[in-house]
Design goal:
Helix content of chain B: 25-40%
Radius of gyration of chain A: 30 Å
CATH architecture of chain B: Alpha-Beta Complex
CATH topology of chain B: Amidase signature (AS) enzymes
CATH class of chain B: Alpha Beta
Largest sheet of chain A: 9 strands, mixed
Structural class of chain A: alpha+beta
Order of helices and strands of chain B: EEHEEEHEHEEHHEHEHHHHEHHHEEH
Structural class of chain B: alpha/beta
Strand order of the largest sheet of chain A: 2-6-7-10-1-11-12-13-14
Largest interface: A-B, 30 and 40 residues
Radius of gyration of chain B: 20 Å
Number of domains of chain A: 3
Number of strands of chain B: 13
Shape of chain B: globular
Oligomer: heterodimer
CATH superfamily of chain B: Amidase signature (AS) domain
Helix content of chain A: 40-55%
Distance between the termini of chain B: 27 Å
Largest sheet of chain B: 11 strands, mixed
Number of helices of chain A: 16
Distance between the termini of chain A: 86 Å
Number of helices of chain B: 14
Strand content of chain A: 15-25%
Strand order of the largest sheet of chain B: 1-3-2-6-8-7-12-13-11-9-10
Chain lengths: 480, 388
Amino acid sequence: MKYETVIGLEVHVELATQSKIFCSCSAHSYGAEPNEHVCPACCGMPGMLPVVNKRVVDYGMKAGLMLGCHINRVTTFDKKSYYYPDLPAAYQTTQWFAPVAVNGLVEIETSKGKKGVRIKQIHMEEDAGKLVHDIREDTTHVDFNRTSVPLIEIVSQPDLSSAEEVVAYLDRLKNLLRYARVAECEMAHGTMRCDVNLSVRPEGSDKLGVRTEMKNMNSIEAIKRAIEYETARHIDALENNTEVLVQETRRWDDIKGKSFAMRTKETAGDYRYFPDPNVMPVVIDDNWFDEIKSSLPEFPEVKRERYMSEYGLGEYDTEQITKSIALCECFEEAAKTCGDAKNAANWIISEVMSILNLRQMTYDMLTVSGKSLGELITLVSGGKVGRANAKKILAAMFDDASINPEEYANANGFVISNDTGLIDKVVKEVVESDPKSVADYKGGKEKALMALFGRCMKELKGNCDPQTLRKILIEYIDKI
Amino acid sequence: MIYTAKKDVNSACKIVAEDMLLTTDMPTAAGSKMLDGYMSLLEAEVLTILKDKGYGVCGKADVGEFAIDLLGETSYNGANTADGKLLNSSSEILKANEADAVIALDVNGTTRRAAAQNGLVSVKPTYGTVSRYGTVPVACSGETVSVMAKDAKTCRKVLDDIAGHDDKDGTSLPESEIAKKADAKEIKRIAIINDMMADVSDDVKANIDSAVAKLDVEVVNIDSSVIASSRPAWNILMSAELCNNVSRYDGVKYGHRAEKFSGIDELYTNSRTEAFGDLLKTAIIFGSETLSTENYMKVYDKALRTRRVIVEEFAKIFAEFDAVMIPACSKAFYTEDDVKADKYVSYKENFYTAPASITGLPAVVAGGVQLIGKAFSENALLELASKI
């Protein structure tokens, strides 16, 4: 019998706000000492009252709109109770009754074509802390830096049917949320986490099979492996009666390549949700809604379409630039400033992206402004600065985004000289010092000319129009 | 009386804080062994305000465990008694002239009841007009910081000084709302709710009669079974919120930790079993049940809806009357034997305090009677109370 897999995802995404959801502690604890970013509020001590970080609601709305959701204009926070040492108040503040966004739709594309994945809801909530187990001492340490860091949980309908679709869906979420600049979505950093709800049924059946929930996949590859393993396990159970499937939560062990049922103690329990009386319902009025809506970026595919039709870019260039909203913004502004979109695209792809890669920065970390880049491109195309020196200026702009390219070129002697007297002098010196290359060139070796050209350019510190130099050099050699 | 006194406080107006308000220079136990010796990192906003305004905070008054009892019978320090009668530490402190006013957290009406049995004045202001920042949370949807003193004038002064918006409290009302207090109209018509008078003792009835005789207002007796249904609804909401709020005391981070345990589950269970008293445990179990998936709609959600019906009932009454007069207790004093015979006395006595707690309306107790007014009418209520 043929089977089909039915998958729904619960994706947790850490929002990229500066501070935590209900207090002013920093939400960024990467590299911090344990319990450095904590206060009585996020430690759940008595007496502190939660005050909603408005930016979290902004980001929640943005995420909802990017994923095609309806925004609930009155959204409320609720308490979810359970005991665990990483949850200092013994309750998590989340959204149970009126989440910020519902009923969305995300389009994905796989080898089988395009497909819509329905979003059930997106709710905002606080993260829990971290437990660090010390095997040597047989103790457990608690780090509350992460408690109350804002999260959204994106709950999909069971519309996915393969690992390929799941990967496409996660990529799409990551792309859209990064475009809206609300989250980093990096599984390796824990800023995107994914639980997989999976069941299997005979192909064509409209009845859902027994569903299991898998946790603890820390990479896209682990998710793929987990889905493949779990699908096979379900089919095996149905075909060969190897085991009886039960609805349960399972932990994925990526090293063993297997999923294991979690102890019922870890998963059972009644969360006793109820509205948090300390957090007033958040009312999103028209002004607020419109402000958020108008702040959203163009969707990636709209941009791609426009880049090709409006700027005349090729498919490859378009794909490269639209990988990141920061690259898009830089490109658009640079194209506007220098008036040459294709040249701007070339600079982004060949120079900007290579420096980002070299420095191991994500594309979204780009701080160089499009305006400055456009000015730099204008300097090069106007013959004021040589390309090699322009690259040096660009590198300096990466270090200090406030650098004005023209001022920097002037201050550092990167301006092309129109002094042909100087060029003549350098050409004469270089040619006289290297008669062998001159002879080689005259004997028909084009490469020998390039060597002489390079040495001249070096002597001139790059501040020379290459065409002019080439012309003078050839004329000089011809005269010999 | 049981309280931690600070000897070196010199001030024209001395304040004692009930032990539900967090202090950084004195421990805060909230009447529970769980928090014995707990030193807070933050101070109750109202105490900070009062200190800034020249008041002297000269001590902490003991309170029943998390202030849910009405008689002070459940403090881990033991009941505070004289001649077998259960006494409230805060009211005893005032009677002994140890302080001019007590700042309390009115969770379940403890200070209103204490004022009634001792002929003192207590005001529970409109919900949201005084910051709850730095108070030990129990039933956050209804509890408010309250003031108790010997006379209405002192209550008024202290309340005026502590009322105001606080950014640190998400339920704190904006200043423009709080300012409505200044517009409170003189009270001319009062309704006595017959349903609240059925089970009270003769001395409480006499207090009501005496108050009516002293006041130059029109008094009408009306029926309202809705207001009389406040208690069960409030007990559900209070217990549920309490269950959730005290779950943070688990022996892991601070507070009482059991000496013997094996594993994290036993650490929780043993610490809480040892540190919590019977009444609190009952409330925790009751509250936990009301929030279970099975009972939420049947019980908790119904209580929330009942709260709205009660608020609407008050609104209807206030269309005709300026205030409501009801008792604050069924009888003035209970003995230790009474509580031994029925340990849930407090859960029954709040029949009289629950209407103001569940609605967030202002309530003033004076001369052994309780006046409940429209939102922001506390000044008018205190004005009336000064004549009782």
